[in-house]
Design a protein that fits this description.
By secondary structure, the chain is an alpha+beta fold. Helix content is 22%, strand content 38%. The protein has an 8-stranded mixed beta sheet. The longest helix is centred in the N-terminal third of the chain and has 11 residues, at 16-26. It binds zinc ion. Zinc ion binds next to strand 1 and strand 5.
Length: 135
């Protein structure tokens, strides 16, 4: 398995539109993509080779609402880009790494993603991401 780069840093936010105005109006960055993924409202803000991914839950029971209740807004996960996520997940499982996702699943804008279990990553939620076509 080869990790190419940090694809993005995922932030748990209460309001994506408010967060967007920080990154665009105040920090002078541009929004690259926005979409809904299930209950999640997501905006990507490229910063060089890496992006900031602002993620808001649109339901009170949503995963980001629960995270914010416990820890407050802030960094939620770090995503490493790999070329072959199926192989990467199998390789990690073979090395005894606990996975939240036993198989990759669809992520934002056509990517495939799989999360490592934070119990084995010193409290950091790590996501693997394989770019989708055209990304
Ligand atoms: Zn992510």
């Amino acid at each position: 398995m080869k990790i190419n780069r940090i694809s993005h840093i995922g932030l748990a936010v209460k309001d994506v539109d408010m967060a967007k105005s920080l990154y665009t109006d105040k920090l002078g960055l541009e929004i690259k993509g926005e979409e809904m993924l299930g209950e999640l409202k997501i905006a990507f803000v490229p910063v060089g080779e890496t992006s900031i991914e602002c993620v808001q839950s649109t339901t009170a029971e949503g995963v980001m609402c629960k995270f914010i209740e416990k820890k407050g807004e802030g960094i939620h996960h770090i995503a490493f880009e790999v070329d072959d996520i199926e192989a990467a997940v199998e390789e990690l499982k073979g090395r005894g790494v606990a996975m939240i996702d036993q198989k990759p699943r669809p992520g934002a804008h056509g990517t495939k993603v799989a999360f490592l279990h934070p119990k084995g990553t010193y409290g950091v939620l790590i996501e693997l991401v394989q770019p989708g076509a055209g990304h």
